[in-house]
Amino acid sequence: MNKATQTVIIGAGIAGCATAYFLAKQGIKSTVIDNNGIASGASGYSAGGLNPLVGHGIPGKLSELAMYSYQKHLSIWDDLQQESGIDFDGRIIDLLQVSLTDTDTNQTLRTLDIFQSTAHPNFSAEPLTQAQIQSRYPLINPSVISGVLASGNAACDSYKLTLAFATAAEKMGALITSDEAVGLVTKGESVTGVKTRTSIIPCDSLVIAMGPWSVNASEWINISIPVTPLKGQIIRLNYPALDTYPDIEIPSLPEASIHPKPDGQIWCGATKMEEMAEPFTSKQPTDLARNTIMGKILQIVPSLEQSELVLQTVCFRPVTEDWLPILGSVPDYSNCYLATGGGEKGVMLSSAIGEALADLITTGSTNVPIANTSIQRFIKNISIK
Ligand SMILES: Cc1cc2nc3c(=O)[nH]c(=O)nc-3n(C[C@H](O)[C@H](O)[C@H](O)COP(=O)(O)OP(=O)(O)OC[C@H]3O[C@@H](n4cnc5c(N)ncnc54)[C@H](O)[C@@H]3O)c2cc1C
Fold first, then answer.
1. Fewer beta carbons under 10 A from the terminal one: N or C of the chain?
2. 92-153+229-319: in CATH 3.30.9.10
3. Which residues pair with 311 in a beta bridge?
4. pTM listed for this prediction
5. How far does residue 279's CA lie from ligand 1's centre (Å)?
6. Cβ neighbours of residue 263 closer than 8 Å, sequence gap 6 or more
């Protein structure tokens, strides 16, 4: 296949910007369009965790892609920081998973096993007794009965990482522009242009990276894109006493992980599911979410009651029913690709997504393990218009 010369990417979230970056590394100058700005969606407000060992589809169908992407991030982060001039706080972190009940303990022991049995040298874990937890982390609720300290996950500031992908791509010739895609121009089995509010941008390949808005492109490509928004809220607290603590979570208290950040803020959350009923477009933080998170984190670190609320954020995860992303070309247009459905792992998966899409566009194939991610897996369940 010939090298594509004019790629348009719709969406300047982390999926779109990573794709622009990896294309630029292969000498392809793309045009990225976004109607709200770089990282204005979930990519700008995520918790920024890269845990390739646990989550929906992990262990399972997402494991190989998750581990691939985790390693890809670590292998490019130094260069990316140099190329972009942006420090995105990329780092390896510890996770303290604690138990309030025997059911929690079953889960923490599973975490122990997963982290200890992973071949990658970054990962390790040790069990902690109640006394060890109190001695190392005196602010943890004394009712905690045991825990596991798991090392090896990575973390970053996902807003800055997205900006770094975008900035590095721009420095290598990509164009990032503010506009809204409203349709496509097609000829036979090819997309030849993107209609925006202000113009038509010609292209010889197209990437739809519209996150939870991807469904809006369904009519353009004659197939339903089965991505739904899952709202998530995070509260950011000022509480210096927790600065040196690892990330902390309790299995029986989901939606209330505690993430101390390098700038001293403590991010807590994120909510999901219970607010699905709200309108997708509502970016209003809610008292319900804030009270839910606060109620749970006080069971983990009671003294967080003295913390100061700095910010409450809202964003929407692009989720598929099997929690795997949708990557690759679409049936009707061989030069049109989807890069969406990152779900709860979209930041972690972004390096693999960017590399895979760039490979597919430039050579027609990729070594990135995307076998489970084709839109074809949904075709039996969805309407073809
Ligand atoms: C609270 C929360 C916490 C999270 N924590 C983590 C985490 O710790 N680790 C992790 O890996 N993932 C996490 N995620 C998931 C992750 O943030 C997302 O999967 C990822 O950011 C999705 O990136 P994206 O580029 O696909 O979509 P988005 O970031 O939503 O970007 C899509 C972009 O497309 C643009 N767009 C849409 N329609 C159009 C159009 N017609 N024309 C032009 N532009 C358009 C939008 O403006 C938007 O900027 C979290 C998500 C949430 C909500």
1. C
2. yes
3. 236
4. 0.96
5. 17
6. none
208-238 pLDDT per residue, tens? 999 999 999 999 999 999 999 999 999 999 9
Q: How far away, in angstroms, is 212 Cα from ligand 1 center?
A: 7
Q: Is 58 in the pocket of ligand 1 (CB under 6 A)?
A: no
Q: Could you give the residue range(s) of every CATH 3.50.50.60 domain in the chain?
A: 7-77+158-227+321-381
Looking at residue 366, its amino acid is T
Task: Find out whether the beta carbon of 232 lies less than 6 Å from any atom of ligand 1.
Answer: yes
For 274-316, write each residue's pLDDT tens digit. Answer: 555 556 667 889 999 999 999 999 999 999 999 999 999 999 9
Distance 42 CA to ligand 1 centre (A): 4
Nearest to 347 by CA among 13, 93, 108: 13
Tell me the two tokens of residue 292.
Answer: 């839910």
Residues 6+ apart with CB under 8 A from 172: 24, 25, 29, 83
Answer whether 10 contacts ligand 1 (Cβ < 6 A).
Answer: yes
Provide the residue type at 323 as one letter. W
Torsion sign across C-alpha atoms 11, 17, 18, 20: positive
Q: Which two tokens stand for residue 81?
A: 């920081």
Counting ligand 1 atoms within 8 A of each CB, the residue from 213, 230, 345, 373 with the most, and so the one to mutate, is 213
Out of 3.40.50.300, 3.40.50.10090, 3.40.50.2000, 3.50.50.60, the CATH code matching 7-77+158-227+321-381 is 3.50.50.60
Atom of ligand 1 nearest to the CA of 231: 53
Which two tokens mark 97?
Answer: 């998973």
